[in-house]
Amino acid sequence: MRAHNHVRRRLNVVRGKGIHVKPPAWIYRLYEHHVLRQLRGAKLPEHIGVMLDGNRRWAREFGHSVRYGHKRGADKIDEFLGWCDQVHIPLVTLWLLSTDNLGRDEEEVADLLHIISTAVTHLASLHQWRIRIVGSMDLLPSEFVAQLTDAATRTADVDGLTVNIAVGYGGREEITDAVRSLLREEAAAGKTLEDVATSISVEDIAAHLYTSGQPDPDLVIRTSGEQRMSGFMLWQSVHTELYFCEAYWPDFRRTDFLRALRDYTQRERRKGK
Length: 273
Description:
The protein has helices at 2-14, 25-39, 55-61, 66-75, 77-86, 106-126, 142-154, 171-188, 193-199, 202-206, 254-265, and strands spanning 47-51, 91-95, 130-134, 162-166, 219-222, 241-244. It is α/β, with parallel strands linked by helices. The protein has a 6-stranded parallel sheet with strand order 3-4-2-1-5-6. The two termini are 36 Å apart.
């Protein structure tokens, strides 16, 4: 305990306002070892959602181009998935591109699409994780959709961590698409609108979400210090635990991830009861 307190004091000192000294790597390793011991035997999340926020602000703060910030954020993904593997998280949803993002400058959107397709193709080439694409594919360029679909197909046989890549994703759009899909299905079965209105249930809509067949997220992590959901997994997150981290996504460390898990294990999950 004394060793841990010493490490914690060192970490707190270097995080003081106006101080940008990076502590030695051994301090982080020792601290991570301590947190891992605390997690031993604890019930960890079955599904983690991550809002990879802060790439642009990170780039501007350090004098880089926005494109470089997005690239650094993409480079962090396989490292993060490795951390998830180490603690046996079975399902992760990564929000890489929102429907709101599609309204940004045309050049930035084009850069984003290229960076995302390159990153997802790289993940598929590793053949370590099963990739699943979630989002409004009709809002995205067909070539981009084809590349992501190919990556998902090539990893369909992987037995391990499943990674939802959320692109062209918005929570309101997902619910709208789910209801639209349900109505079309019921109409094809010969049901009237009155029949559907009388019989529709929560389970019916859930069965038509992008994440149909998957458990709702137990934990959502948002980086960059922003404390709002911004439409991420609106339907699925009704009982989700939220964790907001000050670090921008390119600076998100394994230490930050383990802290989020520890925070999760210390909460009483009543799920509305």
